[in-house]
Amino acid sequence: MDFELKGKHAILTGGSRGIGRATVLALARQGVTVTTCHVRDSDDVGSLADDLAGLGADHLIARCDVADEAQVERLVDQAYERFGPVDLLVNNAGVISHLPLDHLGPDEWRRVVDTNLTGMYHTIRKALPRFAPGASVVNITSAVARHGMPAAAHYVASKAAVMGLTRALCKEFGPRGVRINAIASGLIETDQMGAVSDEGRAKYHEMIPLGRIGRPEEIAQAVLFLASGAASYITGATLDVDGGI
What we know:
Helices cover about 45% and strands about 20% of the residues. By secondary structure, it is α/β, with parallel strands linked by helices. It has a 7-stranded parallel β-sheet, with helices on both faces. This is SDR family NAD(P)-dependent oxidoreductase.
């Protein structure tokens, strides 16, 4: 499907693995020039660069911790200087850990919230003056923001806050012609799912009305839709892509 995004410039955070990687490649296949980042070097970063080169896609892959304001400013400046105004910002970078509240210390609380929520504040705020006319923002959140999850209060709180941030900023950005939406992702085949036992997978399949775990590419397709003209009157929304869980 052609989402008519050819020639656009996107910044996507956390692009080396999982949902981020699938979205970077989906954007590149649509003819989008992509700036993406990763927090640490890995083989995944090199293979992503190879994949993008194989598509003939012009791209920038940089190291950036979105919790660090100075690093985010440098990323946005590099992207703008190389590729010009930003048509799409996809806030995908995120971290998770599983700790009950009585074992959840302030350092770990801050690590998760600073990446998942404050990181979005940094990227949106720094990218705002670099946006092209008609730009859009897509924030990746999680279905657990609506349903909750034990031993993950910090993660759930950060993801629920993303929905509120999205709704608040649509009021500010609408008069500027900028749309901002979120995607609440369900259970997706990423590295984290690799540690789940066959028994655990069977339970997940029973929980999910569609009877299966989602694919990163299915989140990527939702990003393409929200970035496209087909979603031109959608802003402030959180789109559930979760198999009906």
